[in-house]
Design goal:
Distance between the termini: 36 Å
Strand content: 15-25%
Helix content: 40-55%
Radius of gyration: 30 Å
Strand order of the largest sheet: 2-1-4-5
Structural class: alpha+beta
Number of strands: 13
Largest sheet: 4 strands, antiparallel
Length: 496
């Protein structure tokens, strides 16, 4: 038993290592794709620099003004945080709306707070409105004012527009919940509840409001000489300039990057209160730029992927948090080299088949089996609603494998003899160079001996999947069974 536990633990560690390797490799590939897309699109959508002019209410910089931050380092702020149902807030007189008031925050002081670490924490509960309980939005509004001033425009004595800057963020996230009806194909039993089965029978897709109790409020410690209309995207979306002076306000960044999607909980009408933990701290400019660039990458990813990619994002964050930094750096470096070699291998594979005329030493059955494997994988990812990027990559792989078939076989189309009188018959024949060589004999012999091992494994895995797993139907069972077999025992295929 101890030896089995040790072996099981080593297997788990090896599996986690492989997942980390694949994850980092996938992230680097996405970063490279995003880089090339951004470079291409920037050439089409790049705007010409605008000449700063003084046009009163315009958003352009004021001619002759000195660029920079309106507030110098050491300025004292009061922070006011409100919760509301809408992205626009003007209900300053409602005491229940004020969630946290933190006075006397010194801008750029990293040694504030009870622990002298520059961090302020606040934890509290707030009451949900009926709209919030029924899929309504929950917005957090953050206002910074000069010490002693009010963010309420109606307070004529203490309010100053130029001494107030703010931002807001929707705290809840709307996630789709898809109901899929599965059952054991032999017994017809299922572990799903009766309510779940009713919704699955109607192919119901619900959009449910979800909640995460943690949020960090970052004030960027920055005195850069930003000039309006020269700030590169996406940072320009976060920097607000004063119309009169041309200077910019301190940047507020509401940071929820480390909130895992798996930790979001649904909001329903049975809840009365929600708990919210807020943390305030300063943030360096370069770290903020990393967060902003990551958020821009996620926006691009949303065009090509769906909720399935959220699991990859959670795994990436866990990897960054739990993995030793040196090991992570080595993994990234090795993955980059591996990706370069993989690209070169892909290029050389196409060049090899493009210029190959002699099939001696090549396995035709391997090419056909590769097409079959890619076809099964494509059908599987389509049946399981995988994200679009995976579908496209698998589809391209299948097209490349299909492109190889005319290279290894003589393909002819018989238009005279049609199937059902509509579809021309397609005939396949071995090329002369393949028939004359001994490769055909060796190929058949390899598949013959390999089938003695593979076929019993296929039957065993099919029986196991049919007895112990639930499926949407027989079609899904066939796909998942073959796909699972290819993943589990596919390495045996290369033995030949």
């Amino acid at each position: 038993m101890p030896n089995q536990e040790v072996a099981h633990g080593e297997a788990n560690q090896e599996n986690q290592g492989n997942q980390t390797w694949k994850l980092v490799q996938n992230v680097i590939k996405q970063m490279l794709i995003f880089y090339f897309i951004s470079q291409v699109t920037s050439g089409f959508f790049r705007q010409k620099p605008q000449t700063p002019t003084n046009t009163g209410d315009s958003q352009s910089a004021v001619a002759g003004s000195t660029p920079g931050n309106i507030f110098s380092k050491g300025s004292i702020f009061d922070m006011h945080i409100y919760l509301a149902e809408y992205d626009y807030f003007d209900n300053f007189d409602d005491e229940k709306a004020l969630f946290w008031f933190q006075p006397a925050i010194e801008y750029g002081n990293w040694n504030m707070g009870s622990n002298k670490d520059g961090i302020f924490n606040f934890n509290g509960n707030f009451e949900l409105t009926e709209k919030m309980k029924n899929n309504g939005s929950i917005y957090l509004h953050v206002y910074f004012t000069e010490n002693g001033r009010s963010p309420n425009p109606n307070d004529k004595e203490t309010y100053a527009k130029r001494m107030t800057f703010s931002t807001f963020k929707r705290l809840n996230k709307y996630l789709k919940k898809t109901y899929k009806r599965t059952k054991n194909l032999l017994t017809g039993s299922t572990d799903q509840s009766e309510e779940y089965q009713i919704k699955a029978a109607d192919n119901l897709v619900e959009v449910i409001s979800h909640w995460h109790p943690n949020l960090t409020i970052n004030l960027i410690d920055d005195q850069s000489l930003w000039v309006q209309n020269t700030v590169p995207p996406p940072m320009n979306e976060y920097i607000e300039f004063d119309k009169a002076t041309g200077k910019y306000y301190p940047i507020i960044y509401l940071n929820d990057y480390w909130n895992l999607n798996a930790d979001y909980q649904p909001i329903n009408d049975t809840l009365t209160y929600l708990n919210l933990s807020l943390t305030f701290s300063h943030l360096q400019l370069w770290k903020w730029q990393l967060y902003v660039s990551q958020s821009m990458k996620n926006q691009w990813s949303n065009y090509f992927s769906d909720e399935a990619s959220e699991e990859d994002q959670d795994t990436l964050k866990k990897t960054l948090l739990d993995t030793n930094p040196y090991l992570l750096a080595v993994t990234v470096a090795v993955t980059i080299v591996h990706s370069v070699f993989e690209f070169l291998a892909f290029k050389n594979d196409i060049q090899f088949w493009k210029n190959r005329n002699d099939l001696e030493g090549l396995s035709v059955n391997s090419v056909l089996f590769g097409c079959f494997t890619q076809l099964i994988i494509l059908l599987y990812v389509l049946d399981n609603e995988t994200n679009t990027v995976v579908r496209i990559s698998v589809g391209i792989g299948l097209l490349i494998d299909l492109w190889k078939i005319p290279k290894v076989l003589n393909v002819s189309v018989d238009y005279n003899n049609k199937i059902f009188g509509l579809i021309p018959k397609v005939h396949f024949a071995h090329k002369v160079s393949y028939v004359k060589s001994n490769t055909d004999d060796y190929d058949r012999l390899a598949f013959k001996y390999l089938s003695w091992v593979l076929f019993p494994l296929v039957i065993g895995y099919a029986v196991y999947s049919l007895i112990y797993q639930e499926h949407k139907g027989w079609y899904s069972w066939v796909l998942s069974m073959i796909y699972g077999f290819l993943l589990t025992f596919g390495m045996l295929y290369i033995i030949k």
